[in-house]
Amino acid sequence: MNFQQLRILRATVRNNFNLTEVASALFTAQSGVSKHIKDLEDELGVEIFVRRGKRLLGLTEPGKELLPIVERILLDTGNIERLGEQFARRDEGRLVIAATHTQARYALPPVVVRFKQERPQVHLELRQCGPREVVALLRAGEADIGLATEAVGDDEDLVSFPFYSWHHAVIVPDGHPLTTLEPVTLEALADYPLITYHEGYTGRCRINAAFAAAGLAPDIVMSALDADVIKSYVELGLGVGIIAAVAFHPVRDAGLRLLPTDGLFAVNTTRIALRRGHYLRDYAIRFVTCCAPALTAEQVRDAVFPKVAAE
After folding, report:
1. How does pLDDT run across 109-120, given as a tens digit for each residue?
2. Dist CA 186 CA 211 (whole Å)
3. pLDDT tens digit sequence for 190-224
4. Is-above-0.85 flag for pTM?
5. How far apart are CA 79 and CA 3, in angstroms?
6. What are 275's strand-pairing partners?
7. Which residues lie closer than 8 Å to 251 by C-beta, 6 or more apart?
8. How far apart are CA 26 and CA 165, in angstroms?
9. For 179, which DSSP code?
10. b/e for 85-114, b at 16 or more Cβ within 10 A?
11. Number of Cα atoms under 13 Å in the Cβ half of residue 80
Protein backbone atom coordinates (compact mmCIF):
# COMPACT_ATOMS: atom_id res chain seq x y z
CA MET A 1 0.00 0.00 0.00
CA ASN A 2 1.31 3.46 -0.85
CA PHE A 3 0.20 7.08 -0.74
CA GLN A 4 -0.44 7.26 -4.48
CA GLN A 5 -2.99 4.47 -4.19
CA LEU A 6 -4.73 6.33 -1.38
CA ARG A 7 -4.71 9.59 -3.35
CA ILE A 8 -6.22 7.79 -6.33
CA LEU A 9 -8.99 6.31 -4.18
CA ARG A 10 -9.85 9.74 -2.79
CA ALA A 11 -9.64 11.42 -6.20
CA THR A 12 -11.86 8.74 -7.73
CA VAL A 13 -14.65 9.54 -5.30
CA ARG A 14 -14.18 13.30 -5.70
CA ASN A 15 -14.32 13.00 -9.50
CA ASN A 16 -17.52 10.95 -9.54
CA PHE A 17 -15.70 7.69 -10.37
CA ASN A 18 -14.55 9.01 -13.75
CA LEU A 19 -11.04 7.61 -14.20
CA THR A 20 -10.25 9.97 -17.07
CA GLU A 21 -10.83 12.93 -14.76
CA VAL A 22 -8.90 11.22 -11.95
CA ALA A 23 -5.88 10.78 -14.22
CA SER A 24 -6.09 14.42 -15.29
CA ALA A 25 -6.42 15.66 -11.70
CA LEU A 26 -3.37 13.64 -10.57
CA PHE A 27 -1.31 14.25 -13.74
CA THR A 28 -0.93 10.57 -14.48
CA ALA A 29 -2.05 8.01 -17.07
CA GLN A 30 -5.47 6.39 -16.84
CA SER A 31 -3.89 2.95 -17.19
CA GLY A 32 -1.75 3.73 -14.14
CA VAL A 33 -4.83 4.75 -12.17
CA SER A 34 -6.56 1.47 -12.99
CA LYS A 35 -3.47 -0.54 -12.03
CA HIS A 36 -3.11 1.23 -8.68
CA ILE A 37 -6.75 0.54 -7.88
CA LYS A 38 -6.39 -3.16 -8.75
CA ASP A 39 -3.16 -3.46 -6.75
CA LEU A 40 -4.82 -1.90 -3.69
CA GLU A 41 -7.84 -4.19 -3.95
CA ASP A 42 -5.58 -7.23 -4.35
CA GLU A 43 -3.54 -6.23 -1.31
CA LEU A 44 -6.61 -5.67 0.85
CA GLY A 45 -8.39 -8.75 -0.48
CA VAL A 46 -11.68 -6.89 -1.08
CA GLU A 47 -13.29 -4.95 -3.90
CA ILE A 48 -13.41 -1.23 -3.13
CA PHE A 49 -15.54 -0.14 -6.09
CA VAL A 50 -18.84 -1.28 -7.57
CA ARG A 51 -18.29 -2.00 -11.28
CA ARG A 52 -20.27 -2.38 -14.45
CA GLY A 53 -17.83 -3.76 -16.96
CA LYS A 54 -14.83 -1.41 -16.83
CA ARG A 55 -16.85 1.48 -15.38
CA LEU A 56 -16.79 2.35 -11.70
CA LEU A 57 -20.24 3.15 -10.30
CA GLY A 58 -19.60 3.72 -6.61
CA LEU A 59 -18.08 2.34 -3.44
CA THR A 60 -18.71 -1.13 -2.04
CA GLU A 61 -19.43 -1.48 1.69
CA PRO A 62 -15.72 -2.07 2.43
CA GLY A 63 -14.93 0.93 0.23
CA LYS A 64 -17.33 3.13 2.21
CA GLU A 65 -15.60 2.17 5.46
CA LEU A 66 -12.16 2.61 3.93
CA LEU A 67 -12.73 6.12 2.54
CA PRO A 68 -12.83 8.07 5.87
CA ILE A 69 -9.67 6.25 7.00
CA VAL A 70 -7.93 7.27 3.78
CA GLU A 71 -9.16 10.86 4.22
CA ARG A 72 -7.66 10.97 7.72
CA ILE A 73 -4.34 9.49 6.56
CA LEU A 74 -4.00 12.01 3.74
CA LEU A 75 -5.11 14.87 5.98
CA ASP A 76 -2.39 14.02 8.50
CA THR A 77 0.16 13.56 5.71
CA GLY A 78 -0.59 17.12 4.63
CA ASN A 79 -0.40 18.21 8.27
CA ILE A 80 3.12 16.80 8.54
CA GLU A 81 4.17 18.76 5.47
CA ARG A 82 2.60 21.96 6.83
CA LEU A 83 4.25 21.42 10.22
CA GLY A 84 7.64 21.12 8.54
CA GLU A 85 7.02 24.33 6.61
CA GLN A 86 5.94 26.05 9.84
CA PHE A 87 9.34 25.58 11.43
CA ALA A 88 11.45 25.84 8.28
CA ARG A 89 9.80 29.00 6.91
CA ARG A 90 7.76 30.46 9.75
CA ASP A 91 6.67 33.70 8.10
CA GLU A 92 6.58 32.60 4.47
CA GLY A 93 4.06 30.56 2.57
CA ARG A 94 0.66 30.50 0.92
CA LEU A 95 -2.71 31.06 2.52
CA VAL A 96 -5.88 30.18 0.60
CA ILE A 97 -9.07 31.97 1.62
CA ALA A 98 -12.40 30.82 0.17
CA ALA A 99 -15.10 33.47 0.54
CA THR A 100 -18.39 34.55 -0.95
CA HIS A 101 -18.43 37.72 -3.03
CA THR A 102 -19.96 39.87 -0.30
CA GLN A 103 -17.26 38.89 2.20
CA ALA A 104 -14.41 39.22 -0.32
CA ARG A 105 -15.62 42.58 -1.62
CA TYR A 106 -16.85 44.33 1.51
CA ALA A 107 -15.82 42.60 4.75
CA LEU A 108 -12.31 41.28 4.08
CA PRO A 109 -10.36 44.28 2.66
CA PRO A 110 -9.52 45.90 6.04
CA VAL A 111 -8.58 42.50 7.46
CA VAL A 112 -6.32 41.75 4.49
CA VAL A 113 -4.61 45.14 4.77
CA ARG A 114 -3.88 44.60 8.47
CA PHE A 115 -2.68 41.04 7.89
CA LYS A 116 -0.40 41.96 4.98
CA GLN A 117 1.18 44.72 7.04
CA GLU A 118 2.12 42.11 9.65
CA ARG A 119 2.97 39.21 7.32
CA PRO A 120 4.11 40.70 4.00
CA GLN A 121 5.83 37.48 2.86
CA VAL A 122 2.67 35.39 3.01
CA HIS A 123 1.07 34.97 -0.40
CA LEU A 124 -2.71 35.30 -0.13
CA GLU A 125 -4.92 33.50 -2.62
CA LEU A 126 -8.56 34.59 -2.51
CA ARG A 127 -11.11 32.27 -4.10
CA GLN A 128 -14.59 33.73 -4.56
CA CYS A 129 -17.34 31.14 -4.65
CA GLY A 130 -20.70 30.15 -3.23
CA PRO A 131 -21.21 28.88 0.34
CA ARG A 132 -21.41 25.21 -0.69
CA GLU A 133 -18.22 25.60 -2.70
CA VAL A 134 -16.53 27.17 0.34
CA VAL A 135 -17.41 24.03 2.32
CA ALA A 136 -16.19 21.74 -0.48
CA LEU A 137 -12.84 23.55 -0.77
CA LEU A 138 -12.27 23.35 2.99
CA ARG A 139 -13.17 19.67 3.15
CA ALA A 140 -10.92 18.89 0.18
CA GLY A 141 -7.98 20.72 1.80
CA GLU A 142 -7.86 23.19 -1.09
CA ALA A 143 -8.61 26.18 1.15
CA ASP A 144 -7.27 26.95 4.62
CA ILE A 145 -9.98 29.35 5.75
CA GLY A 146 -13.56 29.86 4.60
CA LEU A 147 -15.92 32.78 5.08
CA ALA A 148 -19.63 32.63 4.38
CA THR A 149 -23.00 33.24 5.97
CA GLU A 150 -24.62 29.98 4.86
CA ALA A 151 -23.53 26.33 4.97
CA VAL A 152 -20.22 26.60 6.86
CA GLY A 153 -21.84 26.36 10.29
CA ASP A 154 -23.75 23.18 9.41
CA ASP A 155 -20.95 20.81 8.38
CA GLU A 156 -19.66 18.42 11.04
CA ASP A 157 -16.19 18.32 9.43
CA LEU A 158 -15.76 22.06 9.99
CA VAL A 159 -15.37 24.27 13.03
CA SER A 160 -16.54 27.85 12.75
CA PHE A 161 -16.49 31.12 14.65
CA PRO A 162 -18.62 34.26 14.29
CA PHE A 163 -16.97 36.88 12.08
CA TYR A 164 -19.57 39.68 12.23
CA SER A 165 -23.34 40.18 12.23
CA TRP A 166 -25.19 42.22 9.63
CA HIS A 167 -28.65 42.99 8.32
CA HIS A 168 -30.36 43.50 4.97
CA ALA A 169 -31.36 46.91 3.69
CA VAL A 170 -33.49 48.23 0.84
CA ILE A 171 -32.01 50.28 -2.01
CA VAL A 172 -33.96 52.35 -4.53
CA PRO A 173 -33.10 55.02 -7.12
CA ASP A 174 -33.26 58.65 -5.98
CA GLY A 175 -36.83 59.90 -6.15
CA HIS A 176 -38.45 56.48 -5.76
CA PRO A 177 -41.85 56.57 -3.95
CA LEU A 178 -40.48 54.40 -1.12
CA THR A 179 -38.12 57.22 -0.09
CA THR A 180 -41.12 59.11 1.32
CA LEU A 181 -42.33 56.17 3.40
CA GLU A 182 -41.22 55.91 7.03
CA PRO A 183 -40.88 53.23 8.11
CA VAL A 184 -40.59 50.92 5.12
CA THR A 185 -42.83 47.88 5.59
CA LEU A 186 -42.90 44.42 4.06
CA GLU A 187 -46.37 45.18 2.72
CA ALA A 188 -45.01 48.22 0.88
CA LEU A 189 -42.08 46.23 -0.53
CA ALA A 190 -44.44 43.52 -1.77
CA ASP A 191 -46.11 46.11 -4.04
CA TYR A 192 -42.92 46.47 -6.11
CA PRO A 193 -40.78 44.13 -8.23
CA LEU A 194 -37.79 43.07 -6.13
CA ILE A 195 -34.17 42.27 -6.99
CA THR A 196 -32.09 40.35 -4.45
CA TYR A 197 -29.71 37.43 -3.93
CA HIS A 198 -29.97 33.92 -5.34
CA GLU A 199 -31.36 31.20 -3.10
CA GLY A 200 -28.64 30.00 -0.72
CA TYR A 201 -26.63 33.23 -0.86
CA THR A 202 -26.16 36.16 1.51
CA GLY A 203 -29.09 35.53 3.84
CA ARG A 204 -31.71 35.00 1.12
CA CYS A 205 -33.46 32.45 3.35
CA ARG A 206 -34.13 35.17 5.95
CA ILE A 207 -35.64 37.46 3.31
CA ASN A 208 -37.96 34.64 2.25
CA ALA A 209 -38.81 33.85 5.86
CA ALA A 210 -39.73 37.46 6.66
CA PHE A 211 -42.23 37.69 3.80
CA ALA A 212 -43.63 34.22 4.52
CA ALA A 213 -44.19 35.07 8.19
CA ALA A 214 -46.15 38.15 7.09
CA GLY A 215 -48.25 36.07 4.70
CA LEU A 216 -46.85 37.90 1.66
CA ALA A 217 -45.66 36.61 -1.72
CA PRO A 218 -42.99 39.05 -2.98
CA ASP A 219 -42.47 39.50 -6.72
CA ILE A 220 -38.75 38.75 -7.02
CA VAL A 221 -38.14 39.52 -10.69
CA MET A 222 -34.36 39.06 -10.66
CA SER A 223 -31.77 37.41 -8.46
CA ALA A 224 -27.98 37.67 -8.53
CA LEU A 225 -24.93 36.35 -6.74
CA ASP A 226 -23.59 39.67 -5.54
CA ALA A 227 -24.70 43.13 -4.51
CA ASP A 228 -22.86 44.97 -7.30
CA VAL A 229 -25.04 43.28 -9.91
CA ILE A 230 -28.19 43.96 -7.90
CA LYS A 231 -27.31 47.64 -7.60
CA SER A 232 -26.71 47.91 -11.34
CA TYR A 233 -30.22 46.73 -12.17
CA VAL A 234 -31.82 48.84 -9.44
CA GLU A 235 -30.11 51.87 -11.02
CA LEU A 236 -31.77 50.93 -14.31
CA GLY A 237 -35.17 51.08 -12.62
CA LEU A 238 -35.95 47.38 -12.95
CA GLY A 239 -36.90 46.93 -9.31
CA VAL A 240 -36.30 47.60 -5.64
CA GLY A 241 -33.14 46.00 -4.29
CA ILE A 242 -32.61 44.09 -1.05
CA ILE A 243 -28.90 43.75 -0.27
CA ALA A 244 -26.54 43.39 2.65
CA ALA A 245 -26.31 46.84 4.23
CA VAL A 246 -22.51 46.57 4.31
CA ALA A 247 -22.52 46.49 0.49
CA PHE A 248 -23.83 50.05 0.18
CA HIS A 249 -21.47 53.04 0.05
CA PRO A 250 -23.08 56.49 -0.26
CA VAL A 251 -20.24 57.92 -2.37
CA ARG A 252 -19.65 55.00 -4.72
CA ASP A 253 -23.39 54.36 -5.03
CA ALA A 254 -24.45 57.92 -5.85
CA GLY A 255 -27.89 57.87 -7.42
CA LEU A 256 -29.16 55.20 -5.06
CA ARG A 257 -30.76 55.57 -1.65
CA LEU A 258 -30.37 53.14 1.25
CA LEU A 259 -33.61 52.83 3.21
CA PRO A 260 -33.52 51.66 6.84
CA THR A 261 -35.26 48.35 7.47
CA ASP A 262 -34.84 47.96 11.22
CA GLY A 263 -36.59 44.81 12.36
CA LEU A 264 -37.89 43.76 8.94
CA PHE A 265 -35.38 40.94 8.42
CA ALA A 266 -33.59 38.66 10.88
CA VAL A 267 -29.95 39.35 11.70
CA ASN A 268 -27.37 37.36 9.71
CA THR A 269 -24.01 36.16 11.02
CA THR A 270 -21.07 35.52 8.75
CA ARG A 271 -18.76 32.81 10.06
CA ILE A 272 -15.08 31.90 9.73
CA ALA A 273 -14.72 28.19 9.02
CA LEU A 274 -11.78 25.79 9.28
CA ARG A 275 -11.40 22.09 8.47
CA ARG A 276 -11.40 20.04 11.66
CA GLY A 277 -8.00 18.38 12.09
CA HIS A 278 -6.32 20.54 9.40
CA TYR A 279 -2.94 21.77 10.68
CA LEU A 280 -2.78 25.56 10.50
CA ARG A 281 0.41 27.54 10.16
CA ASP A 282 0.83 30.39 12.66
CA TYR A 283 0.03 32.96 9.99
CA ALA A 284 -3.26 31.21 9.19
CA ILE A 285 -4.28 31.39 12.83
CA ARG A 286 -3.24 35.04 12.87
CA PHE A 287 -5.54 35.71 9.91
CA VAL A 288 -8.44 34.19 11.85
CA THR A 289 -7.72 36.36 14.89
CA CYS A 290 -7.48 39.42 12.63
CA CYS A 291 -11.04 38.62 11.55
CA ALA A 292 -12.22 37.95 15.10
CA PRO A 293 -10.01 39.83 17.60
CA ALA A 294 -11.91 38.35 20.56
CA LEU A 295 -10.46 34.93 19.69
CA THR A 296 -7.06 33.81 20.90
CA ALA A 297 -4.66 31.60 18.94
CA GLU A 298 -5.09 28.92 21.62
CA GLN A 299 -8.87 28.92 21.19
CA VAL A 300 -8.51 28.45 17.45
CA ARG A 301 -6.00 25.61 17.82
CA ASP A 302 -8.06 23.87 20.49
CA ALA A 303 -11.16 24.00 18.29
CA VAL A 304 -9.37 22.56 15.26
CA PHE A 305 -7.38 20.01 17.31
CA PRO A 306 -9.41 19.24 20.46
CA LYS A 307 -7.22 18.12 23.33
CA VAL A 308 -7.73 14.54 24.45
CA ALA A 309 -8.27 14.28 28.18
CA ALA A 310 -5.71 12.16 29.97
CA GLU A 311 -7.07 8.91 31.43
Report:
1. 999 999 999 999
2. 7
3. 999 999 999 988 899 999 999 999 999 999 999 99
4. no
5. 14
6. 158
7. none
8. 40
9. G
10. ebeeeeeebebbbbbbbbbbbbbbeebbee
11. 5
